[in-house]
Specification:
heterodimer, A: 326 residues, alpha/beta, Rossmann fold, 2 domains, eight-stranded mixed sheet, four-stranded antiparallel sheet, 23% strand, B: 340 residues, 10 helices
C-alpha cells in the first residue's frame, strides 16, 4: 500500500501522579495516500489520541512514549513527526496535515469573523500575497463547500448553523492545501441530511483534490458509506484493520462482529441485532490478556492469560485475536 | 385489526410561537409548531423524527407540560389539560420526561438516592422511608443496576453515561406514569451500550404497558424501538408524514421523508448509494416568515406553482401525508430489498 502516514508501534502514555495511563498501546497502522481511512471505536478507545499525535497535539500531559510516526510526502524523505521541533511543527501543521475538530461550534473563535480567522491563519503561516488574492482564495474555498462567501466571510460563528460551521471548518482545513486532513467525528452533532451533504462534499474534495483523509467516528454506518479502509480500535489497541468491504464481510475480530451486529439499520432484519454485553473497558484498569475478553462471546481461558499478537494477512489486513480464524 | 379506542393523550391544533425582541419596535416571531394534531394511545411507542430545528423537542416539552402551547388543546385521558396546567399539575405525574443529556438532568451535588427519593416522597407523602427504600430497590432491579445500594450511594459523576441514562429511566418510571417522553435518550451513549438501553425501554413498554414518545433524528434506532409503532416525520414544526414505521421506511411518500430515508447511512457497504439526495437545497427555510403554502416548497423537487399557495393533508393507503401534489412524487420504495 502506498502510505502517506505510517504509525509504527506507537505508544501514547499519560503519566499521572500515581500511575501511568496507556491511552494508545502498540498501534501500527498505515494511512493510504489519496484514500479515506476511518478509525472506529467507542469513547476512550484512543482514536482521538492517536490522530492528534499526528499533528503533535496530544493534550497535556500525554506523550508519545515510543514508536514512530512517519509522514511520507511524495518524492521526499519521510518526516519523523515524533521528532519534529516546535519550529518545524509550525510549518508542518496545517500545511501538510490539517484537522477538523469534533466540536466545530467551539473550534471557531466567537469574537472574530470568519474572514479574520482565515486571514490570520494564512499570515501566521507566512503567506505574504496581496490582500485581494488572499480574499479570493477564501471565497474560492467557501464556494467549494457550497457556502455563499459574501455572507459567510462577514459572519461571526454564532450567526451560522451547525452544518454551516462544520463546512466553514472544512474550508478552513483546506486553506493551506494540506496533503492529509484529519476529521474527528465531523458530523456527530448534525442531523442525517446535513451529514449526508457534508460527506458528499468531503468525498468530492478527496476525489478532485486527491487529499487523503483520516476520519474518526463511533458510527460504523458512516464507515460503510464513506471510507475505503477502516481500523477498529478498542481499549487503546488496534483490533482489526482492512479494506472496508473486507472488514464488513469477514468480521475477523469478535469486537468488529459485535459492533456491526449491534448497529440498527433501516434495512436489515431487526431481530438479528443484539447488544455487546458488558461495558467498555476502564482505561485505568485494563484487563489482563486480550482487552476484549470480558465482553467476548468466543472467550476461552487462554484469552485471559495471553495478549494476542497481531496477525497480518498478505493483503495488509490485520487482526489482533488469539482465536483468529474461529 | 383496527378498533376504536380512546387515546391516552390528544393534541389538537397545537401551535407554538416564540417571540424574540429584536429591536424596540419589532418583535421577531418564530412559528415553531404549526397545527399539530396527534393522538397517543395507551401502550404504544410513537416516534417523532426530523432534523434539528423541526420542533420535535418543543412538541415533547408541550406533551410533558413543560411548555404551554400558544394555542391548541391537550387532553389527557379525556380531560382538558391546557389552561388548568398549574392547578392540576399532579395529573402530569402521568407524563414523564427523559432528557438527552443525563449529566445535566441530575443534580451533581446529590446522590442518586436523593435524586430518586425526592419525587417518590413528594407524590406519596404518607409513605415511610422503608417503604420508599423498597420501591427504590425494586426500581434498580427493573433498570438492571445491581447491587442497588452501591449505585444509590453514588453521585452522578461517578456513573457512566449509560448508567446515568438508566437512572433517568428509573426516575421517570418511579411515579408510575402512563406516558414517557424520551428526548434523544441514546444519542450521547456509546454504540455498544445503546442497544441495551433501547431494549430496556422496550421491556418497560411491554411490562407496564407504558406509552413512549421517542424523539430522535436517527431513523435506525427509531426503527429498532418503534418496530411495530407509528412514526411522525416532522419538518419545520409540522407533521408531514405519519404512519406505521414499517410502511413509512419502506415506501415513504412525502418528498422530505424520501430524502431523509435516503440520507440514513446503512451499516453495510453493499447498500451505499452515491446519488444525490432528492432535494433542491440543504438549507432549512426560516421560521420567521413561513410560506403561505407548503413549508417544504423551496427544497422540493416535485413542487408546482400551486404548492406555494396551499397545502393539505392527503391519506394514502399507508400514511397521512401533508402534501397536495402527491401525484408528482415517486412512490417506489427507496431500498429494493428489505430483510424483515
Amino acid at each position: 500500500m502506498d502510505a502517506i502516514v505510517r504509525f509504527q508501534n506507537v505508544h501514547i502514555d499519560y503519566p499521572l501522579k500515581k500511575y501511568t495511563l496507556h491511552a494508545v498501546s502498540d498501534v501500527s497502522i498505515d494511512i493510504a495516500r489519496g484514500k479515506i481511512t476511518a478509525l472506529v471505536g467507542e469513547s476512550g478507545s484512543g482514536k482521538t489520541t492517536l490522530s492528534s499525535a499526528l499533528i503533535r497535539c496530544i493534550s497535556e500531559p500525554g506523550v508519545i512514549a515510543s514508536g514512530e510516526i512517519l509522514f511520507c510526502g511524495k518524492d521526499e524523505e519521510p518526516i519523523h513527526v515524533e521528532k519534529l521541533t516546535e519550529k518545524e511543527l509550525q510549518s508542518f501543521r496545517w500545511k501538510r496535515v490539517s484537522m477538523v475538530f469534533q466540536a466545530a461550534q467551539s473550534a471557531l473563535n466567537p469574537v472574530m469573523t470568519v474572514k479574520e480567522q482565515f486571514l490570520e491563519t494564512m499570515e501566521e503561516h507566512g503567506d505574504t500575497s496581496p490582500a485581494a488574492q488572499k480574499e479570493n482564495r477564501c471565497k474560492e474555498l467557501l464556494e467549494y463547500v457550497k457556502l455563499d462567501p459574501d455572507r459567510i466571510l462577514k459572519a461571526y460563528p454564532h450567526e451560522l448553523s451547525g452544518g454551516m460551521k462544520q463546512r466553514v471548518m472544512i474550508a478552513f482545513s483546506l486553506l493551506l492545501d494540506p496533503d492529509l486532513i484529519i476529521l474527528d467525528e465531523p458530523t456527530t452533532a448534525l442531523d442525517v441530511i446535513t451529514q449526508s451533504y457534508i460527506f458528499s462534499i468531503l468525498k468530492e474534495i478527496n476525489r478532485e483534490k486527491g487529499i487523503s483523509m483520516l476520519i474518526m467516528t463511533h458510527d460504523i454506518s458512516i464507515v460503510a458509506k464513506f471510507a475505503d479502509y477502516v481500523g477498529v480500535m478498542y481499549g487503546g489497541k488496534l483490533m482489526e484493520f482492512g479494506a472496508v468491504r473486507d472488514v464488513f464481510k469477514k468480521r475477523r475480530h469478535p469486537y468488529t462482529e459485535g459492533l456491526i451486529g449491534a448497529t440498527p439499520s433501516i434495512i436489515h432484519d431487526i431481530s438479528a441485532i443484539k447488544p455487546i454485553e458488558g461495558t467498555p473497558p476502564d482505561i485505568m484498569n485494563l484487563p489482563e490478556g486480550c482487552v476484549f475478553w470480558p465482553r467476548c462471546v468466543y472467550f476461552e481461558e487462554r484469552c485471559r492469560q495471553q495478549e494476542p499478537d497481531t496477525v497480518v494477512y498478505p493483503d495488509g489486513s490485520k487482526c489482533k485475536c488469539l482465536l483468529e480464524g474461529r | 385489526m383496527e378498533y376504536i379506542r380512546e387515546p391516552l393523550m390528544q393534541l389538537k391544533n397545537i401551535n407554538m410561537v416564540f417571540q424574540k425582541q429584536s429591536s424596540l419596535l419589532t418583535d421577531k416571531k418564530f412559528h415553531v409548531l404549526k397545527d399539530v394534531n396527534l393522538d397517543i394511545f395507551e401502550g404504544e411507542i410513537i416516534a417523532l423524527v426530523g432534523e434539528s430545528g423541526c420542533g420535535k423537542t418543543t412538541l415533547g416539552k408541550i406533551i410533558t407540560g413543560l411548555y404551554k402551547p400558544t394555542s391548541g388543546d391537550i387532553y389527557l385521558e379525556g380531560e382538558r389539560m391546557t389552561g388548568l396546567l398549574s392547578k392540576s399539575i399532579t395529573s402530569y405525574n402521568k407524563v414523564q420526561f427523559i432528557q438527552q443529556d443525563s449529566y445535566a438532568a441530575l443534580n451533581p451535588v446529590r446522590t442518586i438516592y436523593q435524586s430518586l427519593y425526592a419525587p417518590i416522597k413528594t407524590k406519596n407523602r404518607s409513605w415511610s422511608r422503608s417503604q420508599i427504600n423498597r420501591k427504590l430497590e425494586e426500581l434498580m432491579e427493573v433498570i438492571g443496576l445491581q447491587p442497588a445500594d452501591q449505585f444509590l450511594s453514588k453521585y452522578p459523576h461517578q456513573l457512566s453515561g449509560g448508567q446515568r441514562q438508566r437512572i433517568l429511566m428509573a426516575r421517570a418510571i418511579s411515579l408510575d406514569p402512563k406516558l414517557i417522553v424520551a428526548d434523544e435518550p441514546v444519542s450521547m451513549i456509546d454504540v455498544s451500550m445503546r442497544l441495551s438501553l433501547l431494549n430496556l425501554m422496550k421491556s418497560l413498554n411491554k411490562r407496564y404497558n407504558m406509552s413512549f414518545v421517542y424523539i430522535s433524528h436517527d431513523l435506525s434506532t427509531t426503527r429498532y424501538i418503534a418496530q411495530n409503532g407509528r412514526v411522525c416525520v416532522m419538518y419545520l414544526g409540522e407533521i408531514v408524514e405519519m404512519g406505521q414505521i414499517k410502511d413509512v421506511i419502506r415506501s415513504p411518500r412525502h418528498p422530505y421523508t424520501r430524502a431523509l430515508i435516503q440520507a440514513v447511512p446503512v451499516p453495510d457497504p453493499d447498500y451505499v448509494s452515491d446519488g444525490e439526495l432528492p432535494l433542491k437545497s440543504m438549507q432549512l427555510a426560516a421560521l420567521e416568515d413561513r410560506p403561505k403554502g407548503c413549508s417544504f416548497y423551496e427544497r422540493c423537487l416535485y413542487s408546482c406553482e400551486a404548492c406555494r399557495e396551499r397545502v393539505y393533508h392527503r391519506d394514502t393507503p399507508t400514511a397521512k401525508v401533508l402534501c397536495s401534489h402527491l401525484e408528482a412524487v415517486p412512490d417506489k420504495p427507496i431500498y429494493e430489498t428489505f430483510g424483515e
